[in-house]
Design a protein that fits this description.
By secondary structure, the protein is mainly beta. The protein has helices at about 5-20, 75-80, and strands spanning about 20, 25-35, 40, 45, 50, 60-65, 95-105, 110-115, 120-130, 135-140, 160-165.
Length: about 170
Amino acid sequence: MNKTLILFLIFAYSIALSAQNSTIQKASIDFVFVDKDVKGSISGFKSTSKIDWNNLDNSFFEGSVAVETLDTNSGLRNWSLKSGKYFDKSDYPRIYFKSSKITQKDQQYLVEGTLTIKDIKKPITITLKQDGNQLIGTTSLYSYDYDIKIKKKREENLVKVTFRFELK
């Protein structure tokens, strides 16, 4: 076998291997505080996630967002949510997520992990579906569990979150 052919085969193999892995290039994260029908977004996304499509056991989701970027289209409400009473951006500037297990069920990926808000860690599952070079997903949580008590009862503090991850 000549050297050119060997180099070509090595190059083609490395491209095939890299096509099996993805990272998250960027994200958009939107939410709805259900009881008050308040919609918003949060950004400042940073991630070290890696997805190995052929072996999900080698995959992980890990990332954070900046509390400062929380936006509900109301300056006064944003200021209040970022204050010490709720998200306390001064002491807790980022919200973190780290996966512990990723599984595939039919056309969906279930990402189990820990969400950390204000140093309070709680288990959460994100359901994702691949759409071209994007992963689109959802989860629900109660802000009350993270000491963010907008309403008096836990069940009145339901937040539905939607993720759009652009893959590389």
